[in-house]
Amino acid sequence: MGKQYYLTNGSCRFQVKNGILYSAGAVRDAAQTEYINETRGFGSLSLAYVFRGEQAGWEPLKTKKLTDEGVQRQGRKLSYRCHAENECLSVDVSYVLDKDTLHEKITVTNLTREPVELEDFGIGLSCHTDFGWGKDASGEVLGHHFVAGHGSHSTFSRCDGTGPVFTAMPVASGFSTTARRRPESRSRKRIR
Questions:
Q1: Are 76 and 101 contacting, i.e. CB atoms less than 8 angstroms apart?
Q2: Distances (CA, A) of 183 to 89, 95, 171
Q3: Which pLDDT tens digit goes with each residue over 130-161?
Q4: What's the whole-model pTM score?
Q5: Contact 68, 56 (CB under 8 A)
Q6: Is the pLDDT of residue 43 over 80?
Q7: Integer Cα distance of 8 and 141 in angstroms
Q8: What residues does 90 pair with on adjacent strands?
């Protein structure tokens, strides 16, 4: 299911398939660090909701009804968008690569005239980690997730401390990922 697309510029490289990132890194990283778990991906979604008094769960980016628009160029920016829907909800995921930042926007929409209560919204943030007995772990990536309202963020860095730090944090216009040494302060994103 789904085709792989590449969002790459002089700073960052990302690979996306079905709305989930399967590769991310900095172009000028001498070690070519892979920050994302290539099997599980980064950004998979799981929703728990109540519709007509019944609890339900849905993983919209794993549905066969998912459609995507591929990669589009907007000046120097590259974008990707996908869409999925079920009997009562639709989910749109878009990415825009602008310089050294990948902006992700997730929109969940009620398709019915009845209320749908969104109980849980999960985003999979799997980093590239494979620790084996007797294996050199210096090139592996550790992820640190801090969830605390407007200060929530995730950082991913190599075990040996070299190379850029990959950060993911909520921002006013969506969810942002970047490969920088120092993340900028951003405001919180509220999902409606």
A1: no
A2: 33, 19, 12
A3: 888 888 888 889 888 887 777 788 899 998 88
A4: 0.82
A5: no
A6: yes
A7: 21
A8: 85, 109
Strands (E), the chain: 4-8, 12-17, 20-26, 42-51, 54-58, 67-74, 77-85, 89-98, 101-110, 116-125, 141-146, 153-158, 165-171, 174-180
Residue type at 5 in one-letter notation: Y
The encoded tokens of residue 72 equal 């589009």
C-alpha–C-alpha distance, residues 47 and 134, integer Å: 39
Contacts with 39 (C-beta within 8 Å, 6 or more apart), sequence order: none
CA 127, chain centre distance (Å): 11
Q: Which two tokens stand for residue 3?
A: 């085709």
Helix, strand, or coil here: 131? coil
- Neighbour count for residue 100 (Cβ, 10 Å): 15
Cβ neighbours of 68 (radius 10 Å):
18
**CB hemisphere CA count around 72 (13 angstroms):** 10
